[in-house]
Amino acid sequence: MKVLVTVKPVADPNTPPAAWIASQEGKPTNDVNFVANYFDLIAVEQAIRLKDIGVDDICIVSITGDDMMAQVRSAIAMGANRAIIVDPEGKHLGWQQIAAVLKHVVEKEQPAFVLMGKQATDDDASQVGSMLAGMLGWPQATFVSEMTFSDDKARVRVGRETDEGVEVLDVKLPAVITCDLRLNEPRYATLPNLIKSKKAPVERLKFSELGIAADAKVTVAGHALPAGRTGECRMVKDAAELVSVLREMKAVD
Amino acid sequence: MNILVVAEVQLGRLKPANLAAVRMAQDLAAKSGGSLSIALIGSGVGDLVADANKYGVSACYTIDDQRFAHYTAGSFADAIVALVKDKGFTAVIGGEATTARDIFPRIAAGLDAGMCKGICAIADVDGGWGYQRPVFSGMALRTECIHTPIHVLTVDPTAVGEPDAGAAGEVIAFSPPGAADDAVTFVELRRAESARPDLAVAERVVGAGRGIKSADYLDTIGTLADKLGAAIGSTRAVVDAGWLPNEFQIGQTGKAIAPKLYIAIGISGAVQHAAGIRGAKTIVAINKDAEAPIFKIADVGVVGDLFDVVPGLIEQL
Ligand SMILES: Cc1cc2nc3c(=O)[nH]c(=O)nc-3n(C[C@H](O)[C@H](O)[C@H](O)COP(=O)(O)OP(=O)(O)OC[C@H]3O[C@@H](n4cnc5c(N)ncnc54)[C@H](O)[C@@H]3O)c2cc1C
Ligand SMILES: Nc1ncnc2c1ncn2[C@@H]1O[C@H](COP(=O)(O)O)[C@@H](O)[C@H]1O
Questions:
Q1: What is the DSSP code (8-state) at residue B162?
Q2: Residue A95 touches chain B, beta carbons under 8 Å
Q3: Do B65 and B76 form a contact (C-beta atoms < 8 A)?
Q4: Beta B300-303 vs A234-236: how paired, if at all?
């Protein structure tokens, strides 16, 4: 059974915000370390665990430049079989364009289902999974933290994390499934596997060759740092003083 | 723009996040000129019309059908897309909650429209306007511009206030084409019932972190919460440990909250948790580690053992 897993290289979440903004705006900075999006690693881990039910072809799909190959390799080295890398050719692609690229790959590869992260931790957009499902006309299961397949592998039962609790759905395959934090704990790629991953077949495509609209529907006009919170934290020594300060602030009765 | 607010219904009620969507829609209507309408979708939503239709909208559309008794992204998105196309709306707005997060990108795909997620403000940009939203765990704000005739938006409920009240609009039933979604079947909702206020909108929240050491201490946390009339929330660490269900998680991957008072107990203040509490008016931190990052965003702090401070608080309040 073939499964596609999407991986986006993103800035390490511990990057100082100012350095991140500089990197987003294309200014050179050495203060940003890139990693594979954590939610995508959960998706890769899930695919690997599904070997038990017959998943034998795990293909990583990433729309990214050559400079991010190390991040993609780290995902392959967890236990994927191969990768398809689509070069954006220096363009900042919008979410619809990313989803359109993925649709192109899905139609070519015809996987049993697509596993994705529920959001990219840089853009925090959480758009691409639902968009891809809509474009394909496939069912979607987003924010999934539990997953079991029917015996005939025609359906998957998922638990989705919602504001109200865990929503359990029975979903017909093929489907787009986006992974939430509690689905699993991604493994680390071992050094031997990292070395081995260099031999994994990588197919390379170029964005401009795919016949997708060249202009993004949404563009970035700029970034700013949010206004800080009040600033100083007022330190108090114990519960009694805390209560009197909170009463003074009228935060408690 | 001709704006449609899609009101989210959960457990037979209108979700509080809808109010933020209406507020932002009113601001966008003022900025761009044009009309404002609201849509309700589900089965038996007629009872909710009076509550939804009071913000000076020109029309309140109801998509009320057995087909929509259970939410599925495919069927709901198709219905909204059909309504938008039929009535010629140019903006679709929802409150940022888990259903909107699930469905709005699918609506945007169906309309071939650009979308901005979780916006907090409308910002002037050369020759027009853009939408500002938190990115990178809320550590940065970004302004995005949409270049399609239709704009699809979700609104961060912690960032905007209440909508203006106004007259009710004409109630119009809309019946989208299409059959029920047979690709997705609802099985159950596993939900922890609680008599405490709803975390998403509570005025006071007591947050429990890994520092509480075990689920047993949640009884004491609950006593404090009840003294304050507060909801309980938590970090990912507490949910991962199985001490509380996932809907209690606050942060980048949980709920964003904006209470008047947030008391962080035994919480380190990781960026992913901080992302969910930036909207709080007053943050109190109780942590034995003076270097914990939570003190960088807190307004009032106690460096001390929570097992002393929390009982002390309960006694004093
Ligand atoms: C992709 C991703 C998304 C994430 N999303 C979220 C999210 O949405 N929400 C979230 O919360 N986390 C999220 N996390 C996890 C986050 O990074 C932190 O690991 C988590 O918030 C830590 O929880 P904590 O503060 O309870 O635990 P810890 O970081 O372990 O902190 C415990 C604190 O308790 C203090 N303490 C211990 N004992 C006592 C005592 N007796 N008295 C007083 N203080 C004491 C310690 O000093 C420490 O500061 C995410 C992580 C990733 C990778
Ligand atoms: N450039 C990309 N290449 C591959 N996958 C991507 C890319 N951008 C987004 N995705 C996938 O879409 C998911 C949601 O991303 P987003 O909608 O940007 O938050 C991510 O977790 C990835 O799996």
A1: P
A2: yes
A3: no
A4: parallel
Residue B112 and residue B235 share a domain: no
CATH number of A2-228: 3.40.50.620
For residue A169 the two structure tokens come to 């759905």
Domain limits for position B226 = 204-316
Residue B145 and residue B50 in one domain: yes
**Contact check, Cβ <8 Å, A175/B148:** no
Check residue B179 and give its pLDDT: 85
Residue in B72, B271, B317 closest to A13 by CB: B271
- Which pair of tokens denotes residue A105? 């790959």
- Sign of torsion over alpha carbons B290, B294, B298, B300: negative
- Over residues B198-216, the pLDDT tens digits come to 999 899 999 999 999 999 9
Consecutive 10-residue averages of pLDDT for chain A (253 residues): 98 93 88 95 98 96 95 96 97 96 98 98 96 98 97 96 94 98 94 93 97 96 85 93 96 91
pTM, to two decimals: 0.95
Q: How many domains does chain B have?
A: 2
Q: Which two tokens stand for residue A249?
A: 């602030």
Q: Which amino acid is located at A183 in the chain?
A: L
Rg (CA), chain A: 21
Q: Is residue B74 domain-shared with residue B130, that is, in the same domain?
A: yes
Do both B22 and B105 map to the same domain? yes
Distance (angstroms) between ligand 2 centre and the Cα of A117 equals: 7
Alpha helices in chain A (DSSP H): 17-24, 38-49, 69-76, 95-109, 128-136, 191-197, 239-248
Tell me the C-alpha distance between A192 and A85, whole Å.
22
B211 shares a domain with B112: no
Looking at the fold, whether B14 and B158 belong to one and the same domain comes out as yes
**CB of B204 closer than 6 A to ligand 1?**
no
Task: Sort strands A165-172 and B184-190 into parallel, antiparallel or unpaired.
Answer: antiparallel
State the pLDDT at residue A230: 61
By CB atoms closer than 10 A (0-12, 13-18, 19+), residue A188 is: exposed
* Residue range B101-154, pLDDT digits in tens: 999 999 999 999 999 999 999 999 988 999 999 999 999 999 999 999 999 999
Q: B interface mutation test: which of A164, A170, A184, A237 has the most B CBs within 10 A? A: A164
Inter-chain residue contact B147 with A170, CB threshold 8 Å: no
Q: What is the pLDDT of residues B235-256, one digit of tens each?
A: 999 999 999 999 999 998 889 9
Token pair of B254 as six digits: 């949980």
Q: Which of A3, A5, A6 to mutate to test the pocket of ligand 2 (most atoms within 8 A of CB)?
A: A6
Q: How far apart are CA A46 and CA A118, in angstroms?
A: 13
